[in-house]
Amino acid sequence: MGGPPMALSTNRPPLAFSHRYSTPMATEDDVREICAGLPGAVEGTGEQFGFSVIVKGKAKGFLWSWMERIDPKKARVVNRSVLAVRVPNLLAKDMILQSDPSVFFTEDHYNGFPAVLVRLEAISKEDLEPLVVEAWKCMAAGGRSRNQRSDR
């Protein structure tokens, strides 16, 4: 497939994004369908779309709609066309961000935090799925391990 292979963690196989060759435009329904196959994944309620997994009695979010700062003097607003997606560590984050800035980006709010912002209109369901599954794995395992924190 196209796109550069990317290792998200040292103990998992590389993840390749082939969005340049697929039909873009993942939807929230696509995300719901992907998450339906993930044990313990629970959709949140309210205006902000998102999924979490319960670990030791607490909800651990692994993806959520982006809260965009439109006006610096006003509160952030939900932007449901962009998802914030957890990644295993900051090295994986950097690799994903460099793979295609038209799909993946970040903002100051996420500096030092293992998550990328994903434009749903620029990625296919097929390319979003491994990213969502990896995000779920990060949180279903109880959050980041010592090895995953080593890049901080």
Describe this structure in words.
With 152 residues, the protein is of the alpha+beta class. It has helices spanning 28-36, 90-99, 125-140, 146-149; strands at 5-6, 15-16, 41-43, 50-55, 58-68, 77-86, 104-105, 115-119. The strands form 2 sheets. A 6-stranded antiparallel β-sheet has the order 3-4-5-6-8-7, with helices on one face. It has a two-stranded antiparallel sheet with strand order 1-2.
Which descriptors would you attach to this protein?
152 residues; alpha+beta; six-stranded antiparallel β-sheet; two-stranded antiparallel sheet; 4 helices; disordered C terminus
Q: How would you sum up this structure in a few lines?
A:
This protein is of the alpha+beta class and 152 residues long. The chain is 26% helix and 27% strand.
Main sheet properties: 6 strands, antiparallel
Helix content: 25-40%
Poorly predicted runs of 5 or more residues: 1-16, 144-152
Give the spatial strand order of the biggest sheet.
Answer: 3-4-5-6-8-7
- Categorize the overall geometry: globular
- Order of helical and strand elements: EEHEEEEHEEHH
Global Rg: 15 Å
Proportion in β-strands: 25-35%
Number of helices: 4
SS elements, strand count = 8
Structural class by SSE content: alpha+beta
How far do the termini sit from each other?
Answer: 32 Å
